[in-house]
Structure formats: structure tokens, C-alpha cells
Amino acid sequence: MADRGFTISNNLVPFGVTLHVPAFLNGREQFATSEVIESQTIAAFRIHVECAMQRVKRFRILGNKSFSTWLYKPDMDHCLSPNQLFASTH
Q1: CA-based angle 42:45:51, to the nearest 5?
Q2: Do 89 and 64 meet the contact criterion of CB atoms below 8 Å apart?
Q3: pLDDT for 25-52, tens place per residue?
Q4: Do the beta carbons of residue 55 and residue 89 sit within 8 Å?
Q5: Are 80 and 71 in contact (CB under 8 A)?
Q6: Rounded to whole angstroms, how far apart are CA atoms 25 and 14?
Q7: Could you give phi then psi for residue 78, rounded to 5 degrees?
Q8: Inter-CA distances, 74 with 41, 69, 70, 71, 79, Å
Q9: Confidence at 83, pLDDT banded by 50, 70, 90
Q10: pLDDT band at 53; cut points 50, 70, 90
């Protein structure tokens, strides 16, 4: 999820990540109904992401050594996904 103007979607394809960005008018007078609904959905999810980011900053979660150790363990072959991180801070 990103604001309009972020042009990194091509960089994310190799990682299997899809970037969700609100629609552009591109010279049109108004958005199509589906574009309005998609933009509203993105905005609704963005609120939750912003709240989770605020909690990470406020409680210094990533600066906490025990949490950082839990977030990435050498014996694991991956880190937590953003969804798992959000759920753990909620």
C-alpha cells in the first residue's frame, strides 16, 4: 500500500509483492465507480497500518532487543510478514 506517485511496483514483482495505490485521474474528469471503491478500501486499510506503525514507534518495539530477537531468528528461513508484525503489535 502506498500513496499516489510511488513507482516501485516493478521492483516488487520479483518478490511476489503487489503494491496497492489509489487510482489516478490521468486527465479524466472523474473516477470510475470501481476506482472510487478501491481507493476507499485502500484508505480504510491505511488507517490500521498507520496505527500499527504508531505503536511500533511509541513503544519502541523494534528497538527492544528481545522483540528484535523474536522478530528474526537465525534458525528461521524468513522474517515475520507485515501481517504477523501488525497482529503482534495489536
Answers
A1: 135
A2: no
A3: 989 999 999 999 999 998 888 888 888 8
A4: yes
A5: yes
A6: 28
A7: -155, 160
A8: 36, 9, 10, 10, 9
A9: low
A10: confident
For the ranges 5-9, 31-35, 74-78, the lowest mean pLDDT is seen at 74-78
The one-letter amino acid code at 21 reads V
Q: What is the C-alpha to C-alpha distance for residues 82 and 2, in angstroms, rounded to an integer?
A: 14
C-alpha cell at 35: 476506482
Q: What is the 3-state secondary structure (H, E, C) of 30-83?
A: CCCHHHHHHHHHHHHHHHHHHHHHHHHHHCCCCCCHHHHHHHCCCCCCCCCCHH
- pTM of the entire predicted model: 0.57
Name residues whose C-beta falls within 8 Å of residue 46's C-beta, 6 or more positions apart in sequence.
1
- Give me the pLDDT at residue 36, please: 95
